[in-house]
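Before relying on records like the one below, remember that each one covers exactly one chain. Contacts with other chains, cofactors or solvent are not represented anywhere in the record.
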Amino acid sequence: MKHIATAALMLNLGVASVYAQSGPVNMTLSGTAAASTINLGAGAPTAEYNLTGDGTLGPFSFRTLSIGATSPQQSSTCSGSNKLYFPITGAGAGVLRSQDGSLLTVNLTGGDDCVDLSAVQARCTRIYQITGGTGRFKGASGNITLTMTLVPVLADASHNPVFFAITGELTGTVSGVAMQEQAQDARR
């Protein structure tokens, strides 16, 4: 009986390692952005992004917060008479929720905003380190990059944009993700 229990345990561990995979992530997304009521205490406003999409990890929602610079900086990648560059140096984090309820947590490590006043849009990048998760993301690691195009939808009384539509993508590498949920869905 003891040998059967040991064999069953070894079989389960072997099967789990088959499903825990790493590889590239490529996911498209869309959603909205606005100033958040959450104060991260850095003396700058906090931006909140609410996104949904689909891709390598399946359907998901992604909520993330970040703080950027309060005044434009010089940049060789975002230059021109009608462009403003804001590096993302402040705090931030996010949670990706998959359709099965599993959560992938991330911490912001960098990024930038390139605002094109002529085109009335911004190209924004957020770089994250994966810090773990729940469900099939338990023990996950890696890095992902959120690349977005923001277009203003609503302005305040002073004509400053305050609400934005977003399209973009999440790319990077995720390790230790249990792909078992996707394998079960494929059998249906």
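The two ends are 35 Å apart (CA to CA).
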